[in-house]
Design goal:
The complex is a heterodimer. Chain A is α/β, with parallel strands linked by helices. Chain A contains 15 helices and 11 strands. In chain A, helix 7 crosses helix 8. Chain B contains 31 helices and 6 strands. The chains are: A alpha/beta, B mainly alpha.
């Protein structure tokens, strides 16, 4: 019986030392002929995009998928010795914040003339440190089964959501944690004016069942029937609808705001030249057509991308003239978020 | 001492002459093959030093000076000094000369300065050698009875904890006192610290929510208590009763530990959510309108109790098993009633275990972020607040640091309370004396109490797990219950191509990386954790309490903060390891080793020191004593820490989310991505696969470690009836 414990312990020691050695030796690969892309869109989009880019240019893509907030925090923490080259996808506010803090590099892509005005405007606001790649319209989704079971008529406008019938039926993310919800906050303020806008949010607060942490959570709850109304991006709601969930996407009648999905070149990366090529690629027709295949119907920024008939009709939606320069700036954001926390969230329901 | 000193001087010199000093090859190319990163005289400190990097030659001086002969205390002091100077020189050059020149503004008077990258094999070997020289010198001066093993173990553990816990963590906590531009602003700390959203008492005084601090503490205490009670009930049933379905119950006690985050939360929503199975049933049969009670404190409490009971069970298992029957038998002979025996003997003897498992449950609840994220609703806790202070729409690293300090102060209080309760009493029950008598059966009352708690909980666990596997094999849970294996195919498809098997499923890369990293991290974590426990329980040295708390530090700090602190500390020379596998392994080791420490201390406090002393008297060194006497006796603790380390490495999210790279993506990060995209089927299928893999791994670990043999009679005629069965084969 004495041999066994010793044997076990010896095996353990051997395993441990081999393990340590192999961990130490697996050093980082050097960066040549490759580009590291931090990807904040969906996994499939990231994977397909990098495969297409590798095929077109022969440059190897190292892809790291993280959510927008996580990517921003990573880039900021790494700024002393940046490890990424390109930040692909995610709402424009976060990219603008990175641009404002000098984390990203100025780059005027030769693809700019091919883009819609809103994408070029976005680039101008950031002094060409970021460029728009898609537009996601804000709206709300309804779970038709839940609303039917509770005899609630289908809402059409932002104002309909204030009806006491919706008490405990609306989910929205917390703008302090979610960029999506901040876009809503900024949209409502621009749509109704700051005072009326906050009155609206206070009214909405009475009907909110919970402020979720992440922006996509209301849509997931909508899909599971945990809520009757979920506020989020229309293309995310469409994706659930196409997957068979009993949901419907509504573009509010008063008009709505939008996020400008963006791509930025990270300052001081090891593969900046390859990074520029990737930015051009992300703005091109090929990369922006990936979404059609994956049935993700945000609006591409390149004019030449064919928009399929089943996509939501962006022309019929009423958009506000979203002032990214003002509402993307850290100053406005901090003030609005604090005001929302003090005047809306702290109210009893 | 002389021989040891010569050996380590030789190591230092060999590293200076043969091994490449830096991690990256001099020309920035991809190394041809890995051996050039271990042996490469052309890039050694000596070669580079004579090539112009003169500061690299400084390390030669203390290394050569350590060769001065002598065996007395003065020579030992000399050796210690050489080692310390060597350490100081190597660290100073590393921290002062960075990627872009001087790292200290004061030095800019001397121009922009030389530049260098992160240290590689050579640098680390030289550091190790100087550390060993220091320890050899200290042992020579008679520290720790002159035992080199003990001194060097203390040296290594302290060195590693300072480097990988204190340095990054204190660095980021300092940002609590700075504004976002990095200027020192102590007033800002107070302003953020005293915020009403942290300490508000709205839930008592008015209808609004309470401050996060109160929520967090309340939840932590609830979860600490519930997991300890349930863990104890399971451990008592497993060891002290003749419950018929014992095997199954033991399996259920351990099952939740092997569950990836989000899955329990998701399963609870599918059961108790507004459209969940139970709610729908209650509505259809009893007309009870479905509600959202699960979102908030109740949901988080249930999910965390499920998740953290196994840790308590594993700790309690070792402790209950270690309680010697002698005392109980004596009490029985003296006609004590079974319940009196339990209340006055067994229960008090379990105290170290109870205290340690409460502390674990409390600290884990405080640091857990997956469950509050999914189930929290409007019930906010510090960990999620901290996460969104780092990654949210309003990022503020300073606020994250302030909230972490609040969280840490709670941990510290729990730690102090635990020390107070366990006190300085003696809990030794395993001594060198052979037969220790028969274990008496539990008091009826306690036995039925344990059944009453454990059986329903076990059934509930079964329901949760059945649901997980069921949900992984239907099209869309909650709507379309057609059987399908599509989710598994998407994740784990294997095609046979021209070049053999092609792992084309989307989950394979992250799956392989995760298993590899967990397998590397687990033995290292257990080894360091148990070594630390041994030092804390058996050796005395200055600053032991502070050191013990330090080992809890990286465990108690939310993963998000640890992750960011690791990037800030290890993305720049001298230790530049971001983007490698090493940083993930190190992060896991230092985040998960506290379980090994806690389990080890609880186990060791039961083992009579006279066993060590007997071994020592017979001329065995501390190392031999550890190997031959202590390790075989603390097998349940080894098992607990190995299992825990492996599983935590497979299921961690918050810290590693910042540390994963393109080459080393992890399963949980992939799963979180799927959950975000609303593809619950795929996420659950992947999780179910991980559950099976972890169950297999635990079975293997169990097989490898074997059982602890304590000289006790079996109650039955068969003399070799097992006295203890650690984790059941899953």
């Amino acid at each position: 019986m004495r041999l066994f414990p010793d044997l076990a312990i010896r095996t353990l020691c051997a395993v441990a030392s081999t393990a340590l050695l192999s961990a130490i030796l697996a050093g980082p690969a050097a960066a040549q002929g490759q580009v590291t892309v931090y990807c904040s869109i969906l996994e499939e989009q990231c994977r397909e995009g990098s495969a297409l880019f590798e095929k077109a240019t022969g440059i190897k893509v190292l892809m790291v998928r993280k959510s927008t907030g996580e990517t921003y925090a990573t880039i900021k923490a790494e700024s002393a010795n940046p490890k990424g080259d390109v930040w692909w996808g995610g709402p424009g506010e976060a990219h603008l914040q990175a641009a404002e803090e000098g984390l990203t590099e100025e780059y005027k892509s030769p693809m700019l003339p091919q883009l819609y005005d809103w994408a070029v405007r976005h680039a101008e606001v950031s002094r060409f440190r970021t460029t728009g790649i898609y537009l996601g319209a804000l709206g709300f989704g309804i779970n038709t089964e839940v609303l039917k079971a509770r005899n609630i008529p289908e809402p059409k406008c932002w104002a309909d959501l204030l009806d006491p019938k919706f008490k405990d039926e609306v989910q929205l993310a917390d703008p302090n944690s979610s960029g999506t919800a901040y876009t809503l906050l900024a949209t409502i303020v621009q749509l109704f004016g700051e005072d009326k806008g906050f009155d609206y949010l206070k009214g909405l607060h009475k009907n909110i069942s919970q402020y979720t942490k992440s922006g996509i959570a209301p849509i997931n709850a909508l899909k599971l029937g945990e809520t009757g109304v979920g506020i989020g991006f229309i293309h995310d709601i469409m994706t659930q609808k196409l997957a068979g969930a009993p949901v419907k996407a509504i573009a509010p009648c008063e008009g709505t705001g939008y996020e400008t999905g963006s791509v930025s070149l990270i300052k001081g990366g090891k593969g900046t030249d390859a990074g520029r090529k990737f930015v051009d690629f992300a703005l091109g027709v090929e990369a922006q057509s990936i979404n059609n295949r994956l049935k993700i119907y945000s609006m591409p920024s390149n004019r030449e991308v064919v928009i399929p008939p089943e996509a939501p009709d962006f022309k019929s939606m009423k958009f506000i003239a979203y002032d990214t320069a003002k509402y993307g700036a850290a100053e406005t954001r901090t003030r609005l978020l604090k005001k929302w926390g003090d005047e809306v969230k702290s109210l009893p329901r | 001492m002389r021989k040891r000193a010569l050996l380590w001087v030789a190591v230092a010199l060999a590293a200076l002459v043969l091994a490449p000093w830096y991690m990256e090859p001099a020309d920035g190319s991809v190394p041809g093959f890995w051996l050039t990163r271990v042996i490469n005289p052309l890039e050694s400190a000596l070669a580079l030093g004579f090539g112009g990097r003169l500061w690299l030659l400084l390390a030669l001086v203390p290394a050569l000076a350590a060769l001065k002969p002598g065996e007395d205390v003065a020579a030992a002091r000399w050796l210690t000094a050489c080692g310390l100077i060597g350490l100081a020189l190597v660290l100073a050059q590393g921290f002062l000369i960075g990627l872009k020149g001087w790292n200290l503004d004061m030095l800019s008077a001397f121009g922009s300065g030389p530049t260098q990258g992160g240290m590689g094999t050579g640098g680390f070997l030289v550091l190790a050698a100087f550390l060993m020289l220091t320890c050899a010198g200290l042992a020579g001066q008679g520290w720790c009875r002159g035992d080199f093993f003990v001194v060097s173990a203390i040296g290594w553990v302290i060195g590693l904890i300072v480097l990988f816990v204190f340095m990054p963590v204190l660095n980021i906590l300092a940002s609590a006192f700075q504004d976002n531009a990095g200027h020192l602003m102590p007033a800002l700390f107070w302003q953020k610290f005293s915020d009403a959203s942290i300490w508000g008492l709205g839930c008592v005084t008015s209808g609004t929510a309470c401050g996060v601090a109160w929520n967090t503490v309340f939840l932590g205490i609830l979860v600490g208590l519930s997991s300890t009670i349930l863990g104890t009930a399971f451990a008592l049933i497993a060891l002290r009763t003749s419950f018929p379905a014992k095997g199954a119950l033991k399996l259920l006690a351990i099952l939740p530990i092997i569950t990836p985050p989000f899955v329990i939360g998701l399963a609870l929503i599918l059961i108790f959510g507004r459209s969940g199975a139970v709610s729908t049933f209650l509505f259809q049969w009893f007309g009870i309108p479905p509600s959202r009670w699960i979102y908030g404190l109740p949901g988080v409490f249930i999910a965390q109790t499920l998740a953290f009971t196994p840790a308590a069970y594993l700790v309690m298992l070792g402790v209950v098993q270690g309680i010697s029957p002698t005392l109980e038998e004596a009490a029985q002979t003296l006609r004590a009633k079974p319940f009196t025996i339990f209340a006055t003997l067994t229960w008090p003897l379990m105290r170290p275990g109870l205290a340690n498992s409460f502390l674990l449950g409390f600290v884990e609840s405080l640091a857990d972020f997956g469950n509050p994220l999914v189930l929290g609703g409007n019930f906010e806790v510090l960990s999620t607040k901290i996460f969104f202070a780092v990654v949210g729409a309003a990022t503020d690293q300073g606020r994250a640091a302030v909230l972490s300090i609040v969280l840490l102060s709670f941990t510290m209080m729990a730690f102090a309370a635990q020390q107070l309760w366990v006190g300085r009493k003696v809990y030794t029950t395993i001594s060198g004396k052979g037969d220790a008598g028969l274990q008496i059966p539990l008091s009826r009352r306690v036995e039925w109490g344990a059944y009453f708690l454990a059986v329903p909980w076990g059934l509930f666990t079964i329901a949760v797990y059945l649901l997980i596997f069921y949900a992984s094999a239907v099209k869309t849970i909650g709507r379309d219950y057609t059987f399908t294996l599509q989710h598994y195919v998407t994740a784990f498809n294997i095609e046979s191509g021209a070049n053999g098997l092609l792992f084309s499923g989307s989950a394979w890369p992250s799956f392989f990386a995760t298993v590899k990293i967990a397998a590397i991290a687990a033995p290292l974590t257990a080894a360091i954790g148990l070594l630390t426990a041994y030092l804390l329980a058996r050796q005395s040295f200055a600053g032991k309490r502070a050191f013990e708390f330090g080992t809890l530090l990286s465990f108690a700090i939310p993963g998000t903060v640890v992750g960011v602190s690791y990037i800030l500390a290890f993305n720049v020379p001298p230790i530049e390891i971001t983007g490698t596998m090493l940083i993930l392994v190190i992060c896991f080791i230092f985040r998960n080793m506290p379980v090994g420490v806690r389990a080890g201390i609880a186990s060791l406090s039961q083992i009579d020191k006279s066993l060590d002393e007997a071994s020592f008297t017979l001329g065995a060194s501390a190392l031999t004593t550890v190997r031959r006497v202590i390790l075989p006796l603390i097998k349940p603790a080894i098992l607990a820490s190995l299992v825990y380390a492996f599983v935590r490495a497979m299921t961690a999210v918050s810290a590693v989310i910042f540390l994963v790279s393109a080459e080393y993506n992890l399963a949980t990060i992939y799963i979180v991505g799927r959950v975000e995209a609303g593809e619950h089927g795929l996420a659950i299928a992947y999780s179910a696969t991980l559950i099976v893999v972890m169950a297999l791994a635990i079975y293997l670990i169990n097989l490898l470690i074997g059982e602890r043999k304590i000289g006790r009679r079996g109650a039955a005629p068969a003399p070799s009836a097992p006295t203890a069965t650690p984790v059941p084969a899953a």
